[in-house]
Specification:
globular; 4 helices
Length: about 120
C-alpha cells in the first residue's frame, strides 16, 4: 500500500480545516483501525447543502491539503453529480454527501463497529 508523506493526524486536521473553511456540516471522523480487513484507517464524513456546496467543500479540502501538506488524493470519485464525492487519500477517505444521499447510504451504521467522533466546527 502507498503511504502518504504526512501523518494521519496532520492530514485529518487539514481535511477538517478545509471542511470548516466553507461551512460543511455534520462532520464526523470514523476510526476503522481496529476493524479487520478495512480498506483504510479513517473515514471523514460531512454534508453539503447543495451541489455547489459539495463542490466547494471538495475544492477547499483539496486546496488546503495540497497547499499545506503537498499531498494529492489517490483518486476522486463522484464529481459529475456532486451528490456524493469520495476523496481517497489512501489511509483516509473523505465522503462529502448531500443530506438525502448520506441518510440513504447511512455509512455510520453500516460501519457500526467503528469509533465515531463528531467534530464540532467553530461558528
Amino acid at each position: 500500500m502507498v503511504k502518504s508523506k504526512s501523518s494521519d493526524s496532520e492530514l485529518i486536521t487539514k481535511i477538517i480545516f478545509g471542511i470548516e473553511d466553507v461551512k460543511g456540516v455534520d462532520v464526523c471522523i470514523m476510526d476503522l483501525t481496529d476493524i479487520a480487513n478495512t480498506v483504510c484507517g479513517y473515514f471523514i464524513i460531512c454534508t453539503g447543502t447543495s451541489n455547489t456546496h459539495v463542490s466547494a467543500i471538495v475544492s477547499s479540502i483539496r486546496k488546503h491539503v495540497s497547499k499545506q501538506l503537498k499531498e494529492k488524493p489517490f483518486s476522486v470519485e463522484g464529481n459529475e453529480n456532486q451528490e456524493w464525492v469520495l476523496i481517497d487519500y489512501v489511509n483516509i477517505v473523505v465522503h462529502v454527501f448531500q443530506r438525502e444521499i448520506r441518510e440513504y447510504y447511512d455509512i455510520e451504521n453500516l460501519w457500526g463497529d467503528a469509533k465515531i467522533k463528531n467534530v464540532e466546527l467553530s461558528a
